[in-house]
Specification:
The chain has 364 residues and is an alpha+beta fold. The chain has helices at 51-69, 105-115, 164-176, 187-195, 235-246, 250-260, 290-314, 337-345, and strands at residues 6-12, 16-24, 30-39, 43-44, 47-48, 75-80, 85-95, 124-136, 141-142, 152-163, 180-186, 204-210, 215-221, 224-231, 273-275, 287-289, 323-327, 348-352, 358-362. It folds into three domains: 6-82 and 165-193, Nucleotidyltransferase, domain 5 (2-Layer Sandwich), CATH 3.30.420; 83-161, Dna Ligase, domain 1 (2-Layer Sandwich), CATH 3.30.1490; 230-362, ATPase, nucleotide binding domain (Nucleotidyltransferase, domain 5, 2-Layer Sandwich), CATH 3.30.420.40. The chain has a six-stranded mixed β-sheet with strand order 14-13-12-17-18-19, sandwiched between helices. A five-stranded mixed β-sheet has the order 3-2-1-6-11. Strands 7-10-8-9 form a four-stranded antiparallel β-sheet.
Length: 364
Amino acid sequence: MAIGDIIVGIDIGTSKVRTVVGEVNNFGQIEIICNTSYKCSGLKKGKIINEEEISLSIAKTIKDAEDETNLKINSAYVTILGKYITIVQNSVTKEVKDKYAGISVRDVQNAIMQVKDIEIPDGKTLIDIVPDKITLENGNIVTDPVGNLSSSFTISAQVILAERDYVRQLNSVFKRAGLEIDGIVPVALAERNLILDKNELHDNVMLLDIGAGNTEIGVFEGSTFVHTNSIPVGGDNITHDIALVLNISEEEADKLKRQYGLALKSFIDNDNDIILNTSRDNNKNRIIKSSELIEIIEARIEEIFSIINKEITNQGVKQKINNVVLTGQGIININKSDVARKNQLKHSCKNFNRKGSKHCKTYV
């Protein structure tokens, strides 16, 4: 990336589409210059159910971004849910063409070309190569091998595969919106550098993004991307539970969730009365205790973390995790969600909002 380059990213979520425009600054970092979003319900439980609606929402966010930045946007990167991703770990040892001249750019490029040479299963397609470690012949690990005097080097990388049918849908959606796709990036991989601090980037971390309709799981061993998946539950499920159990409207349920959001009933200070304004029972002004509301929230949050625990246990990655980072609009406004998670997963946790600012910290 060169200074002044413009990078555009699009995230298709359950409740909205978000477009972020960044510019490469003098330090080689991407500085956000624009952030737009538009409501969208074309994605349900991680599946594209309405291409037209999603494309219209993308077009709306792009137009708003163009108006704000005075730029013409023709292409963008797009995120993809973990449920459509397969990560293949691969490594290649490359002999250096001229060991007296040092490792060349061509040597590295050839090694990357070789590391992606794997047998791709039916129904999958290659979307990215993520090199994470380069080891010289003497065993030294380097970030940039170019110029090092070594007769050979080994490059370790993750070969990222995606479901071909879903990629085809994404291409169709972008074509409708009049855009090209620059690249397809797993959600967890896209968020890693935005959310994790410098120490966490070198730690064994599980990143949990609990959104409106999905929970994204990303597990990293240092720089190695080892596992990702999507669970079709999120903040909307909590809202639906409240509405169903209390027999009130979704709108009031969401309002109560935000106003009284607490993940554990044991942390209640005052068990206040709550008047239900949209109760469909005979008593239009039904009154409940806040503990009744929080009990509903607690049950769903406990289930979400229980499913996550089962997932990482079945995948054999739980014991590798030293730290858990929790983020996402579906959970961030619910207090003590980090404690609820710790009870289920038995790991330390940090809470962040989507912009990456720290909401709270707890450690074991």
